[in-house]
Design a protein that fits this description.
about 280 residues, elongated, disordered N terminus
């Protein structure tokens, strides 16, 4: 029942957002209706294991912009090099048991199965994600901007080589931001995802949140710092926690570049990560 209820939220939000396509699309005379972005991200860490794993991700996103929200589709290429016990879940590396080889040994009539740690080097299509956002409250002198979000992860990644779980995930969340001083703003996001259950492993549903502070150095240059934490999907492992520092620069009205770096604060998070990308509105 829980999964059915959460799965209904993405469906409802996608209907509300997509309905704007016909009802109140952004006027081409004022703004561009579409945005496409491409980024490259690299991270490395042990993720609760005793050996490092490196992740290279190259996601491409196409987003349709509306007056009160947006709808986006992200298609990533991913590469995983390292411990086979690390699996990508919603694009994030998590220790799950992964795709390590297993061996069954029979001693005195009793059989026991052991997981044999191994180093992997696998790459391919990642999990495709459809996400919607709907603004429910506009920022004013007292109230923050509030938006609700929903996402569905399609299991397009090869779960047999650790690029995904091979199961659907569905979730939703809330985003808020508020200007507190001229050029300064605070923001907070929170979300919950129902994780699909692959055969042979029990994964916990995952919550995630972040708290941050941003500053407009100029009208075109924005920098921010935030703290992130998300629930470990394997019981008994530490929650991943990190600090993210990012910068976004508007080169032209329709062209932006962005960079960010993360520093892990727990065993479950990357030791560090670097991301750079561009986005174009048209």
């Amino acid at each position: 029942m829980m999964k059915a209820r959460v799965a209904g939220l993405p469906a409802l939000l996608f209907v509300l957002t997509a309905a704007q396509w016909l009802v109140c699309p952004v006027s081409r005379g004022e703004e561009q209706d579409w945005m496409t972005s491409l980024s490259i991200g690299y991270s490395t860490g042990t993720y609760g294991t005793d050996s490092p794993t490196s992740i290279l991700s190259v996601p491409m996103t196409i987003r349709r912009l509306f007056a009160d929200g947006d709808l986006s589709l992200t298609v990533p290429f991913v590469s995983v090099t390292g411990d086979c016990r690390v699996t990508l879940v919603n694009g994030l590396p998590n220790r799950t048991g992964g795709t390590c080889p297993r061996r069954t040994v029979t001693i005195l009539g009793r059989s026991r199965t052991f997981t044999l740690p191994a180093v992997v080097n696998n790459q391919g299509l990642g999990d495709i994600v459809l996400q919607g956002r709907y603004y429910v409250l506009e920022e004013d002198e007292l109230a923050p901007m509030v938006a609700i979000t929903a996402r569905v992860k399609f299991p397009t990644a090869n779960n047999e080589i650790g690029l995904g779980t091979g199961e659907f995930d569905e979730g939703g969340g809330i985003e808020m931001s508020k200007e507190i001083l001229p050029d300064w703003l605070v923001f907070a996001d929170a979300g919950f995802t129902v994780i699909g259950q692959p055969e042979g492993v029990t994964l916990r549903n995952q919550w995630i949140y972040d708290l941050g502070l941003g500053y407009y150095v100029t009208d075109a240059f924005f920098v921010s710092v935030s703290y992130e934490e998300w629930r470990a999907i394997i019981s008994g492992l530490p929650n991943p926690r990190d600090v993210l520092v990012g910068a976004n620069y508007r080169v032209a009205s329709a062209f932006r570049v962005n960079v960010s770096t993360t520093v892990g604060l727990s065993d479950g998070a990357p030791d560090y990560g670097l991301t750079g990308g561009v986005s174009i509105r048209f």
